[in-house]
Amino acid sequence: MNRKNFGGLSSVLLSVLFAGLILTGCISADTEESAPEQPSGQAGEVVITDILWKWEAFQDTAGKNDITVDSPDQYTLVFRTDGAVNIQADCNSVSGTYTRDGSSLQIALGPSTMAFCGENSLDEQFLARLGGAGSFVMDGDKLVINLMADSGNMVFVNGGPAPDSEAGGAADTAFYDIEWQWVELSGTAVNPAQTIANPENYTITFSPDGAFNAKADCNQVSGTYSQEGGFTITPGPATLAICDDDGLGERFIQLLSNVTAGGPDGAGGFALETGGGAERLTFKNGG
What we know:
nine-stranded antiparallel β-sheet; 4 helices; Lipocalin; 3 domains; alpha+beta; single chain
């Protein structure tokens, strides 16, 4: 190749290289301008915390038991950045915790008020389904919680920023160091409801350290309780005096050992329930 041709080829290569650099710069600039803004937190992670999620519907996988919630404002969910979850289930307030790993989501229900919200309330269904959460997806600005075992989906609408709230709240502390006197036994397995003739003979007092002391007719009982995943009571040592034949001492202790939920009833009292609300023990504040 002669020197003249070599010089011409060099000019062509330089022109191509220069054009390529210009094109690369334009593409990079366009990419930077069009890149979506990442949400706060880890890059690419969907943010669901500190938002007031309002329950809008339940979608049954089988399509037979779908629910449209008439009052989403009464069934709300807030995930806090510290791992706490605040729940409003109709007339009851519930606290708890949640764990998240990517799209995986589990909710552990904790202390709850125990008010009766009416026959048409969805509070029990709402809480039961939240306890079965397994994962979530976003559908536009809606949060869809997928339940475990492919048992359906809960749809929540974005209600805007959640109000500030201390984790737990009154449901955690309102019942400590009070002598609760048993006044009524009711529930789906009790018909009719039974009024307790001598409430002062059937009492229970909870300490902040997880211990309790109870009076079961003429006997004294101590033990522990837990608010992990509900409310459970484990009776321990008890006196063994022989009480009156018409007393409810043994029945009282048995019911306490079967409790799965409990908390203030929103009206100054306290309530405990066995599984599925079969039995409900209502207590008044005895001081």
